[in-house]
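Suppose a colleague, Dr. K., hands you the sequence of a protein chain of 164 amino acids and asks what its three-dimensional shape might be. Before reaching for any lab equipment, you can write down a predicted structure in token form. Begin with the sequence itself:
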Amino acid sequence: MDELKFGFGSNIATRSLLRTMALAGAIAIGSVTTFAAGGDSSGGGTTPPNDCTDGDDCDDATKLYDDALYQLGAELAQAGQYENAIGVLLTVSNQNDPRVLNYLGYSYRKMGQFGTGFAYYRRALEIDPNFVLAREYLGEGYVSIGRIDKAEQQLAEIESRCGA
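The predicted structure, expressed as tokens, is then:
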């Protein structure tokens, strides 16, 4: 039997992607059902709420939806599907989530758009200076462009937060 292909070299990656997509769909359907049944005081709708911008608190449905989208975006990025990852990550309601910003930076960097990638890493680190994964990826980016001095600065920052 032919297996589904999504441009991944691994059947495990495909199964993982499908699991995440199913989770995102289930959350979205659950959110739609809740809002259509009158659970949303703003008049209901068929999309999850979008109140996670500019530092506002998110409700539980939005957090779950955003987490599923983040997970899907991160998996796509790790699988080398950078443009798809960016497309998914840009749909997350909370564009100030350091995890989202980190994988946007990762995806742009891996596509060779270092300036854009570095800008996303910096935004993530402005929000959470202790987010060492963003520092690690930023350091890797600096190595890629030959800025070993900047990479060493990030390594020193990681060591100061986590130890050697």
